[in-house]
Amino acid sequence: YKTREAGRLLEASNLKNEDINKALEDLIQSGQVEKYGNYLITAEYKISLFNRIID
Q: Splitting the chain (55 residues) into consecutive groups of 10 residues, what average pLDDT does each group show?
């Protein structure tokens, strides 16, 4: 649901794909977001996953 909503918001705003890709690339370069297969995950989410595995 949230993904669909985000898609609608992106369509409603006039962001171009190149702008979105550049923003994603910046997030990946800064280490805030990582590519994980076909997914993008935040550093915080990755830490929470590891914490769950350890527990």
A: 70 76 86 83 84 82
